[in-house]
Write a structure and sequence with these properties.
The chain is about 35% helix and about 20% strand. The protein has about 325 residues and is an alpha/beta fold. A seven-stranded mixed sheet has the order 2-1-3-4-6-5-10, sandwiched between helices. Strands 7-9-8-11-12 form a five-stranded mixed sheet, sandwiched between helices. Strand 8, helix 9 and strand 9 form a beta-alpha-beta unit. The longest helix is centred in the first third of the chain and has 15 residues.
Length: about 325
């Protein structure tokens, strides 16, 4: 009776067949904020590809049935439809799993970016996805998106930043925008000190220190912050930069806050990701620094829980702090 609910089974009541309540997650926060914005602006429409529940759009669907479009398993069509709606004066917001967005790459380039259409594209399940396994790992979206002209690419560090980025993507941008966020809950919650900085495309300094600079994006900002706290207990002061914008990169803030030792942290592939972007920035500016990169290698990542895989690839906050300490301060 409810195939959508049982497409991916989470813990549920055997007697009632109802999923047990889970904590809020990024998908829920996205859907809630989009619904709030849509109540004030009838140009906003939502599009998904057979994933209304998984992408947090169930409430939007119920609230605005005439402004919600489920194109079924046709991500290519979702992207092209969104471009048409945008060019017709609407503000389409697409929510697609990162791994499924790969199917719509041609349409993202030709129908959205080439037209410079104001489409807001939300890559849900960016990074590791855990139980869905090898085919669903959302590790490639930063790398495959960055080379496309006209795109703005953002990644929030927590729920508050996701809400601010969604509003900014809708109202502070004229062209296509990608927001990528992980499966699951925020790791840390930060006060949003200056919402206007997001509209201006600015990176953020989370923590100050001059022994090492940790440059992180998305969920890895919290990991960097926690690793910095471990290092602080060892007498090492680490600066933490929240990149926020992968494209265009806030080069000025990053260059102004570099120490002699630099680490990049990302929930994606190192090949083509933040690691390469920062390496290029150093070369462009003729800077010689000691560098460590934390992310996923150039091979397919197998089945496993997020916690298991982060341990395998040395991406827990303890692993990060230990490698930094052992490499430079032992």
């Amino acid at each position: 009776e409810n195939p959508d609910l049982y497409h991916g089974v989470s813990p549920f009541s055997l007697n009632e067949g109802i999923a047990l309540k889970e904590d809020d997650d990024y998908s829920y926060i996205f859907g809630k904020k989009l619904t709030e914005l849509a109540k004030k602006d009838n140009r906003i429409v939502a599009i998904t590809a057979a994933m209304a529940s998984g992408t947090g759009l169930s409430h939007f669907k119920e609230t605005f049935p005439d402004r919600f479009f489920d194109v079924e398993i046709a991500e290519q069509h979702a992207m092209t439809m969104a471009a048409g709606l945008a060019l017709g004066g609407m503000i389409p917001v697409i929510s697609i799993y990162s791994s499924f967005a790969q199917r719509a790459y041609d349409q993202l380039i030709h129908d959205v970016a080439l037209q410079n259409a104001h489409v807001v594209i939300c890559f849900d399940r960016a990074g590791l996805v855990g139980r869905d396994g090898e085919t669903h790992q959302g590790l490639y979206d930063l790398a495959f998106s960055k080379l496309i002209p006209n795109l703005t690419i953002m990644a929030p560090k927590d729920y508050g930043e996701l809400e601010a980025m969604l509003e900014s993507a809708i109202y502070d941008n004229d062209g296509p925008v990608i927001i990528r966020y992980p499966r699951g809950s925020e790791s840390l919650s930060y006060p949003l000190a200056d919402k206007a900085q997001i509209g201006k495309g600015k990176a953020e300094i989370i923590r100050n220190g001059d022994d090492v600079t940790l440059i992180a994006i998305g969920k890895m900002v919290a990991y960097a912050d926690k690793a910095a706290k471990i290092l602080e207990d060892k007498g090492i002061r680490a600066k933490v930069i929240n990149v926020r914008f992968f494209k265009p990169l806030d080069k000025e803030t990053i260059l102004d806050n570099l120490s002699e030792r630099i680490c990049t942290l990302e929930d994606g592939t190192l090949c083509g990701g933040l690691a390469e972007v920062i390496d290029s920035l150093l070369v462009e500016n003729n800077l010689s620094k000691a560098v460590l990169h934390f992310g996923y290698p150039d091979h397919f990542i197998a089945q496993g829980s997020v916690e298991e895989l982060e341990k395998v690839y040395g991406l827990t906050q303890e692993d990060i702090a230990h490698k930094i300490f052992k490499t430079w301060f032992e």
